[in-house]
Amino acid sequence: MRRAKITIVGAGNVGATTAHWCAAAELGDVVLLDIPQTGDMPKGKALDLRQAGPIVGFDSDIIGTTDYKDTHGSDVVVITAGIPRKPGMSRDDLLSTNAKIMTNVCEQIRSTSKHAVVIVVSNPLDAMVQRALQVTGFEPQRVIGAATDDALQRSRHGARLVRAEQQKRRGTFGQRATVVGLLALGGGGLAAGKAGREADRQEGRACERVRTPTLHGKENSLPRARIHPACSTGRPSAVVRGSRRGSYGLKP
∠ at Cα 196 (192, 202), nearest 5°? Predict the structure, then answer.
């Protein structure tokens, strides 16, 4: 069976970390790509990751390159390329420069990996996803944006709720919450987060409770979260895991 081929465009901190976790999880073989001006940097990072394989226990093939020919036939392309924000800058300040970068990247993807699923991480996210959709000409379901700001906020809040409920039910104090997993879909940033939380409160259907292991005993592996149909609306939504069936996290 052919392995999936995952191309990561942009070998900076985000790109290299993405390559690390894709390889460690053995999601497929990884191509780490950056612009020619970076020289052998992508190759060096790929070599470091590949040499860690026997120690960590994965055998994904990882190569670094500055040539889009090496990305030919990719199943998934993750775009992290773009200039980072500097102090005092907003995501919107990046729009003009990163739009040009996104255009160039997507033109290359269109010619080398016409059947790929594209995951955009570059900021400002919503604008970059729209640009990628326009340039590639792919179906909308194959161009996805990934952001984590709102997910982190909800996860921390959910952890506090789970912990408080555990203490109330069991009379335990000082215990850490078992786990809170979360999936957020939609644009990044505080505005999107506030809009998503308000929509969640109004519609009351953003989360689906999933049974998880107890604090004690050997059962500490996590079940796979189920995504609530509300997530398909395109606005930020969440899946919250609690420690028992009950009123944990957001109320249904």
Answer: 145
